[in-house]
Amino acid sequence: MGISLGRSHVLSDWDPEDTVAWENGNNKIARRNLIWSVAAEHIGFSVWSIWSVMVLFMPASVYHFSAGDKFLLGATATLVGACLRFPYPFATAKFGGRNWTVFSAFVLLIPTVGTMVLLAHPGLPLWPYLICAALSGLGGGNFASSMTNINAFYPQRLKGWALAVNAGGGNLGVPVVQLVGLLVIATAGNRQPYWVCAIYLVLLAFAGIGAALHMDNLQHYRIEMNTMRAVLAEPHTWVISLLYIGTFGSFIGFSFAFGQVLQMNFVAGGQDAAQASLHAAQIAFLGPLLGSISRVYGGRLADRIGGGRVTLTVFCSMILAAGILISASTLGGHGGHTPAASMAGYVIGFVALFVLSGVGNGSVYKMIPTIFEARSHRLQVGETERRQWSRSMSGALIGFAGAVGALGGVGVNLALRQSYLHNGSATAAFWAFAVVYVAASALTWAIYVRRPLEVATPAAAGVALARA
Length: 468
Hints:
The structure is a single chain. 80% of the residues lie in helices and 1% in strands. By secondary structure, it is mainly alpha-helical. The protein has a two-stranded parallel ribbon. α4 (67-84) packs antiparallel against α14 (235-268) and α18 (340-376) packs antiparallel against α19. It is globular. Keywords: Cell inner membrane, Cell membrane, Membrane, Nitrate assimilation, Transmembrane, Transmembrane helix, Transport.
């Protein structure tokens, strides 16, 4: 479908549930917006997680940062990205999906340039690096705005697939930036990280210009503060958010930490810093890659057999994967030397957690529009108002759950930091992760599997609709 530079980028009276209009061209419009939303979100994820790569370019002999300092950089980026996920859905509704996607792509040029400057001047104190890591967290907010926008473009019957593709494509930004880092380390060595940032300067410009040319704004799509208050009054909001801590929190937290954990264990195994960086980079991308791909299948499975059942299976399996990490860490904690069996355990355990968390990400997010679609049919309103309420409530919860879930990534990095500082290993952190997965399994079984989902309309939701 050709795109005219002078065409209107505002869509009025958009109704994805109109099957006739959908088959006569609206599906192509939605797909075009999905493609460019994925592209911008993908690059945003890469910039957000760029410090998971940069720490491999920062040998202690040159930059004088400890393992705890490097985990703190990851936690800072994750924290800012998580917090920005609260306002970003409102920005999409306020300024338009196209307009906000363009802005959110171009603003990431700032931390990308800052990263190049800082890594070119080793010997600086930690605080400038923390500021730059915080600015890279702007890329983490892109997820919430992108998911909210795509949720409004697709009909209920395709939301599980569309949201999973959008999120999975965005999540792929994590392994891709790590692959770029691997190529730079393999070709230019671990002292020239500038090429990673230079590549992403070009990609950010590409995403911003592409979004400006090909995306659209929805004229009547709004998320009001009354809607957010109604969402916060909904008990399922907090349950879904807690479950998302266990799934996406694990994914993004391990994405930042996996390479560094491998690097430290390769050094403990007798490799020098350059060898350890290369070998860690060769493996680190695999987990986020498989986790991103598995997210799409998680959404599809949830479409077929229900999000609750898929999520429960995921958390039970994550308990077993955490047990593998506990065993590997305990085995490698004796004598200060990391044996090959322990390294294999780290890789198997982490990769399993990445795959499972990806499936869980898709299944948990499928549950969000399902909950509010069911509730909307109990409202005594017209069809247009019912659909608007369902989309607005789902969009608000997508942003809120995404923000809370990302805070789990902060917890992962802080838990690993404290575990290494106090015990010299990650064993205590892995035990903490296992406990979280046990609690999440119990919560999922009790609320979404043991008995049918209650769908009575909350009073707060009716108030929000009346005021909208």
